[in-house]
Amino acid sequence: MNPEQLGVKSLKPRLSNVLKDQILLQLPSLNDVESEIFACKTQLQRLGSPRTTAGERRRYLLQVSREFSLLMKAAVDGEYNHPFFGTSKSEDGYRKRLRARVQNTLTEFEQEMRVNGQDRVIVDSPPTDGEDIRP
After folding, report:
1. In contact, 99 and 77? CB cutoff 8 Å
2. pTM (two decimals)
3. What does the pLDDT look like over 22-61, one tens digit per residue?
4. Nearest CA to 84 among 68, 99, 100?
5. Between residues 41 and 78, the one the model is more confident about
6. Exposure letters 14-50 (e unless 16+ CB within 10 A, then b)
7. Is 127 exposed, middle or buried (0-12, 13-18, 19+ CB in 10 A)?
8. Which residues form the Dynamin stalk domain (predicted)?
9. Any idea what the Cα angle at residue 109 is, between residues 71 and 69, rounded to 5°?
10. Three-state secondary structure along the chain?
11. pLDDT at position 130, please?
12. Are 88 and 94 in contact (CB under 8 A)?
């Protein structure tokens, strides 16, 4: 063996390099753990304080149902001020705008019926020879 590799003095730097390489190899997975911890903390904050008693759970469900009712009323009334609705320029935002979608659908239906909705044509005088009154 090489005499430079013998003894404690030479072993310390070599072990230090091996440990450093192992730490650098494992470091990316530590970042993943940190991001997951952050995601869990964020989700816990969104959930709010714990609801341990039945009364707390009922109050929470009542609050959620009120918020849902208010959002549905806003959607039906066409008042899209809540952040839930987002922007109308995005596909997701447009899908959440109930009144606007119903109105656009009815407008398209009205146009389709106006153009292609008749089955018979009512005329004031009977047709003359060669005149076709079908739509």
Report:
1. yes
2. 0.49
3. 887 877 777 778 888 999 999 999 888 889 999 999 999 9
4. 68
5. 41
6. eeeeeeeeeeeeeeeeeeeeeeeeeeeeeeeeeeeee
7. exposed
8. 4-107
9. 10
10. CCHHHCCHHHHHHHHHHHHHHHHHHHHHHHHHHHHHHHHHHHHHHHHCCCCCCHHHHHHHHHHHHHHHHHHHHHHHHCCCCCHHHCCCCCHHHHHCCHHHHHHHHHHHHHHHHHHHCCCCCCCCCCCCCCCCCCC
11. 62
12. yes
Token look-up 């596909």 returns: 91
Question: Whole-angstrom Cα distance, residue 56 to residue 49?
Answer: 10
> b or e along 102-111 (b: 16 or more beta carbons within 10 Å of the residue's beta carbon)?
eeeeeeeeee
Q: Which tokens belong to 120?
A: 């018979």
For 84-131, write each residue's pLDDT tens digit: 888 878 888 888 888 888 999 999 999 999 888 877 777 777 767 666
